[in-house]
Amino acid sequence: MKNLSIKNKKHVCGYVAVVGLPNAGKSTLMNHYLKRKVSIVTPKPQTTRENVTCILSADDYQIIFIDTPGILRPRYRMQEVMTSFISKAVDDSDIILAMIDAAEIKNSLHPDITEFARRLKHGNVIVVINKIDKIKKQKILELIQLITEMFPDAEIIPISALDGDGTEELLSVIISKLPEGPSLYPEDIISFEPERFFVSELIRETVFLSTNREIPYSSAVMIDNFEEKTSLVVIHATILVEKKSQKPIIIGKDGSMIKKIGIMAREAIEEFLERNVYLDLHVKVRNDWRNKDVHLRELGLIKGK
Ligand SMILES: Nc1nc2c(ncn2[C@@H]2O[C@H](COP(=O)(O)OP(=O)(O)OP(=O)(O)O)[C@@H](O)[C@H]2O)c(=O)[nH]1
Ligand SMILES: [Mg+2]
User: What is the pLDDT of residue 114?
Assistant: First the structure.
């Protein structure tokens, strides 16, 4: 009987682009829904550099979320590429979640958000006011009023991606707006990216968390070797920096920084892979890699030939 009732229930499926300014909490929301660290999160803006697919499946829905890099005005080639990922996710989506950090809104919305709202010629926009745990209750109503003026046709949902407040309601609204249809992917798949991608992201997350100023933004991670042995996974990876002067900073005094990064990253990778890991890290200089297609391609940020 149970199976029959599930079969007769309406099933919805579709793509949801998650967009917003850097640091709004987009990746945090993805990890909250998937109950797993699929997309890396740090307190620093511009953590996410490319679109990450996060698939949430249940009996009556499959939501294919696309977590995107934060919206910004590109200043170098990598940021142009990041911006193109956002447009692609928006173009391919059934619904857009436009996420705003409640604590960042003063008396008006950030000009980049208003500009983006103007460009969004998309009927199905849900504005998510995130981080409501950081503001007073009465401020939420004021924010809703302000945002209604900007997005008159959008649904507006206040949430805290960190503690889960409002996220069930948001999920119901998404489901109510998705087109009817069968699942496009098997239910046990949560993302398309290979394990190597997640491993390189976890190392990059550690670099973001362990270094300051321009270093996180000047760094990238390449997996040189990923080998599954019987008792553990052996990973050799390279942290790229863009100037000679940055290499000693990542290595630290007597190798202390690279050692710290190695331990933290290994622990995160072990948790993700649920296997023991041997991690070997190197640092290399690739001059001005953020502006060179050849390196962006090597890092997988530019796809194809
Ligand atoms: N207090 C609070 N902090 C949050 C919430 N959601 C996210 N954060 C924090 O905000 C910071 C940025 O979160 P991310 O999920 O990396 O933000 P993002 O929008 O993916 O950022 P980019 O990838 O840089 O565009 C992290 O320190 C999170 O812990 C929330 O609901 N409340
Ligand atoms: Mg992110």
Answer: 72
